[in-house]
Fold this sequence. Notes:
This protein is α/β, with parallel strands linked by helices. The chain folds into 3 domains: 2-56 and 65-77 and 205-284 and 384-430, 3-Layer(bba) Sandwich (FAD/NAD(P)-binding domain), CATH 3.50.50; 103-194, protoporphyrinogen ix oxidase, domain 3 (Orthogonal Bundle), CATH 1.10.3110; 286-381, Polyamine Oxidase, Chain A, domain 2. It contains 14 helices and 20 strands. The strands form 4 sheets. Strands 1, 2, 10, 11, 12, 13, 14 and 20 form an 8-stranded mixed beta sheet that branches. Strands 8-7-16-17-18-15-19 form a 7-stranded mixed beta sheet, sandwiched between helices. Helix 2 (65-73) packs across helix 14. The longest helix has 16 residues, at 157-172. The chain is globular. It starts with a strand and ends with a helix.
Amino acid sequence: xxxxxxxxxxxFAGLSAATALAERGARVLVVEARPSLGGRAAAFTxxxxxxxxxxxxxxxxxxxxxxxxxxxxxxxxDRVRLQDxxxxxxxxxxxxxxxxxxxxLPSPFHLLAGVLTWDALPLRDRLSVIYMRGKGGLQPxxxxxxxxxxxxxGQAPRLIELLWExxxxxxxxxxxxxAAAAPFARVLATMLAGGPRGAALALPARPLxxxxxxxxxxxxxxxxxxxxxxxxxQIACDQLNVTVRGESSSGRAVIAAVPWYALPDTLLSxxxxxxxxxxxxxxxxxxxxxxxxxxxxxVVTDGMFVGLPGRTMQWVFDKRTIFGERASHLSLVSSGAExxxxxxxxxxxDLAVAEIRDALPGARAATVTRAxxxxxxxxxxxxxxxxxxxxxxxxxxxxxxxxxxWIDTGLPATIEGAVxxxxxxxxxxxx
Length: 431
């Protein structure tokens, strides 16, 4: 069966590429190996509660222009709750609660003013934020880690602990002692370029499949395309054929929107021109995320999310507040979780319960009625110095394009990077 374009992979990258092509009149086939769409940003049904549970809490920023363009295209922009400007509740390691709130000032003065009035920090530490854009601006040195860069920029240790480290670990999914500074600098520059709303946080207001995957599927099908799940595919590079369980489909353009670790098995007999790209994918390290979902017998917080700096679980999100549910369902996230990903479920649950009770007084008398641990061992690619170079969208094979958060967009493994790569691949295919 012939299509104008075939997209292999049904996550943010693949669906943004496919909908961009469909919007321009192309008949698109999307094939996804998993039973449901979403890739590493998907949802599943918890058998005990019957709720749709995300495979991890995914956060957007107001500066995610490509992501919001994708959501507008598929009619799903209202399925995300975006702050007017950045405001974060924080409980430090000593149990002191505070709030970082940025006023409606032009960028970067909104962030500067927010930090300068943040009572969680002594005045001297607050003032160190002024030196962040000192000589050389935000440009990091080659092979400089995030921590090395922040120290060189004169940032106080407590400001690093309460602000920069949680932000960097959330964006890069890696320890600031390991992750390269350049991708984080790109994230900061993007946030600061977007005005007060650019740094604001946005959370999915529905489970991820209903937030974007199913609306994208409907958009594609309404325009004559097809979306198939449970469809593990291989791409024959010589003929641009895509084979799923022995059935072959052809397209004038094929977009491989699979994670880096899946590319070597997706490309069937890749030509020598693709050897470097396949080798880079095979040798790119991964970084895990662990999420512990807790259902409690009472409400323990009024906020949608709380930062927990200095702890193993860096953030807690209240699904009751976000989704409007009646039950208290907390999602605790540990990014860059190499040190705990191999721990047993009960050990992780006990850790999450202890940390949430330490941080939130309302949780100390609460009873846990249900707990579910989610591990994404290859949640993101590593951004440590020395990793293989990330490939471009175009390949040496005419008509074959690459998409995914690991493509060289300049961004780390974020939703925005994935969607940007999908839009770049669609534009290249259309050209």
